[in-house]
Fold:
Amino acid sequence: MIETNRVLRSVVACPLCRGGLDAKWSCALCGRVFSTVEGRPVLTTDVGGDVVKDNAVIRAQARERTGARRAGLRGVADRLRDAMTADLFGDDRTQVRALVDAVAGTIPEGCPVVDVGACEQYYRAQLDRLGPVLALDVALYGATDVVADAHAMPFKSDSLGGIVVIEVLEHLRRPWQFFAEAQRTLTKGGVLMGVAPQYCPTHGFPNDYFRYTKSGLASLAESHGLEVEALWPVGGRWATLLHWYWANHARENPLRRVAGIGVAYHGWFQGVAKALEALDEREGRGGGAPSGEHQDHVGWSFVFRKR
Ligand SMILES: [Zn+2]
Structure:
């Protein structure tokens, strides 16, 4: 925690005016005084419009988001179900591993990496390979180092070695504003990397605004001075189709509520999805490899670099 605090202090700045912040998180330039919740600074503005302002609400929402598993045998069933669906359509964990492999050794030395929309930092183990990691979110989770808004990043210009956004861009009201902030806060050679959905059920939190095509992501990067270093599809044709089916039909099947049957149902779905995806892979149009003309996928993984 002391080490994290030292890292945060080395890059932090007022999200309103970019002035320096003193030991009590007050801005030396504009005078704005920021609060803390459970020892973590809340460096938010009204820029993004989705920042949760009430600290009790922040904590309640965080608990609701992370404590969804039930107790006892039903909890065991929940765990099994989670394990069965985790890897359904090109699992984020697999993607994060590929992203980290793609940039490992190229992050400017001594510059921290910020995990934006980190929630409980599910990918911490992989991201730690890149250097010191700071967890940023609009709500306070156990793992959060700083509560802030991606539309107004509380960091000095040219200070970050990396910014990670795993399934986050769809939750930003004005993603172009975030890209401008990424360009500003990344140091030369730093990377913006992540996963963004193209076909994905509408979901929280705090809200869901956008979907991304390959061209759209590349355009956002290039128009903000970031070079497209890698951009690969996640999930093939079948996964895309089944993703819709899962979100709009299968997930609401009442049989799922019966313990045991629910787990088997997930297993069956997982099996069908995997088999169809394997067919797609054999045709060379799957989730792992760039697919020529085929442009429709569950999502895209990307590495954009500031030159
Ligand atoms: Zn200020």
Remarks:
- The first strand starts at residue 35 and ends at 37.
- The chain has one domain: 2-306.
